[in-house]
Design brief:
The protein has eleven helices and nine strands. Helix 2 packs across helix 4. Bound molecules: glutamine. Its EC number is 2.1.1.297.
Length: 276
Amino acid sequence: MRIDELLKGASERLSSVSETALLDAQLLLAHVLAVSTSYFYTWPEKEVSVRDSERFNVLLSRRELGEPVAYLLGEQSFWSLDLEVAPCTLIPRADTERLVEVALSVLDISKVNRILDLGTGTGAIALSLASEHPRSIIVGVDLVEEAVALAKRNAVRNQLSNATFMQSSWFESLEGGELFDLIVSNPPYIDPEDAHLSQGDVRFEPKSALVAENHGMADIEHIIQVAPRFMKQGAYLMFEHGYDQAIAVQKCFVEAGFIAVESFQDLGGNDRVTIG
Ligand code: GLN
């Protein structure tokens, strides 16, 4: 079958499950054919082999059942990086790039900064900061061994040697260790009762990376309480959090003695990142 016909049929099949049906179909076919999506505009009439059509069909069927495109491709771009992704971790999102931007705005580029990323997942935040600050030293930790291995592969894939990764439940494996200039985290922050959890891509992502007790605040509260023991004088702590959690997060920061507490908005205009 011709590329244009194949894509038309595929995007019709995906239209009931995805708001970006044609784009999804293009990304999946580009993956199968090992080309970029621009190829489809140059060669719409090219024939696709039976073998490639079958491989494409398998991916379409999985997408029809809701599996996220990023898991089907096994990769996702974030910041200036190309990251391997897998179902053991959250898929990096554009909202989290906001946290990277805010982090970069408080770091002194002329210094060797020591940075800790809690719940690093794919390593997205740690590696973005590592790429922007080649002299800084970044440690990323995650509870899930498989995620730690994935983040290490992402460091190699993006040729970044100033970020290292280790298994740890928040600060646990760092006890008695060094102090940091900046601690960042995109922790689980969704309320276990949130209806959002039964819709779209999140259904396929690990609950341990998404959901936290106490209306989504439990992990953020824990980190705010323990973090000061791991921070240099004048260091920063910052989180990504839910669109409606800024006030609660600010209150926690202030109660724990943090100053200069401030929130920043995401692309959708919601308070998404808070720093202290
Ligand atoms: N922002 C993500 C979502 O709403 C959740 C990320 C997280 O819990 N850290 O799907």
